[in-house]
User: Fold this.
Amino acid sequence: MLDASNIESAYSNEVVKTAQSTADTTAPVVSAFSAPATATALTVTGLSVTASDNVGVTGYLINDSATAPAASASGWAASAPSSYTFATAGTKTLYAWAKDTAGNVSAGRSASITITLADTTAPVVTGFSIPATAYSKTVSISLLTATDNVAVTGYLVNESAAAPSASASGWSASAPASYTFAAAGAKTLYAWAKDAAGNVSASRSAKITITVSKQILGSFHKGSWKLSLNQSNSMMAGITADEAFQFGMEGDIPVVGDWNGDGQSKIGVYRDGAWYLDYNNNGQWDGCGAPQDPSKDLCAVYGMKDDVPVVGKWDGGITDMIGVFRNGSWFLDYKGTKQWVGCGAPEDSQKDLCAVYGKRGDIPVAGDWNGDGISKIGVFRNGSWFLDYKGTKQWIGCGAPENANKDFCAGYGMNGDTPVVGDWNGDGISKIGVFRNGYVYLDMNNNGIWDGLAVDHGAGIPQNAMQGVLPIVLQSAPQ
Assistant:
């Protein structure tokens, strides 16, 4: 028999059972979540979240944590958010969540985004240094450093105080090692840096005074060097020696170059593959040891017996490098190691530069034929000149300078002449000339034609009556 209390207890138990059987344990499902692949601000907009639930979605949450949030956590919103703010830039992953009234929280759905903040900070040129004086229009840059909050991507050196645009010509990925001026005189050089965002630094400047003199003629005979400072346009000029040095011996081949990059020409000799160079520019032999010991001379082995030595700025720098000519083939010390490291330059700057230009019996010459600061090769053949005007290191036919993509050809001299090359008027362009019977004939106007003494230049050289005397050309005399 049931009394009232038993009936009430039975009813309560049935209500609890019904409530338990209808409790919501199904979590929502985030079916879609999208975000932009990239952004330029910490607040990312354009987010889209889609979620569903067996009863109803009551909350949305977007965060950057892969750990499921509690239903009571802060940040839930009744509608799907369309933006999210990160604390830092970089590659990020966002997670979208949904919940229902019962407190069920969905699994997360993720999307990746890369945030790159706009860079408005310009680089800073922290150091810039060039010599105070120079004797060549190509000057060395001894220091150029710059910093940036992200990275320095370009360097530019010019003569203008006006800031260049990031798209201007002349920018290079690495700091340049030299700069070539168009003319001599007192100059100001400006250094700039830029970054990937196109921000250009303020400049840092340095001053230099460039003095370019006409080149000095002289002679070499059995180790005896004699120079004439008389540059008059007279067949008798230059015969009297103003400077004399003893460096080398009979049978040596004289060479001239700027061995240490200070802008001064220095003497040296080539002997059966061995080079002996007056590195300290005192006009006398001091023994091997340079450049480690700058008070000594520089010695190297590069080439072999019967090779013809050549000297030039093969990479356009400020220091002259050595090389040899062998029956039409050229082997040039491109990097300045003073030793053979194999062909490959300029593509591989750690290698030597090799070329075929000319043939057996030609006399090699080198010079800056177009004034771009880089020494180029050429040959003299029985009065004819064939010069690699563009610097291609291969024969492409006559036509320069009218056609700058061709070679320069000239008939200047005759069979038996010795070629000479120099910047006769100081304009930065190498010009041709010949030595014959103790006298030089120089093409002053660079037209490849002898125009007589009224236009071109003729002069004697010291020791010109000596049998076997050789002409030499220097930018300046040893100190």
About this structure: The first helix runs from residue 4 to 21. Residues 15-20 have pLDDT under 50 and may be disordered. Residues 231 and 238 are 7 Å apart (CA to CA).
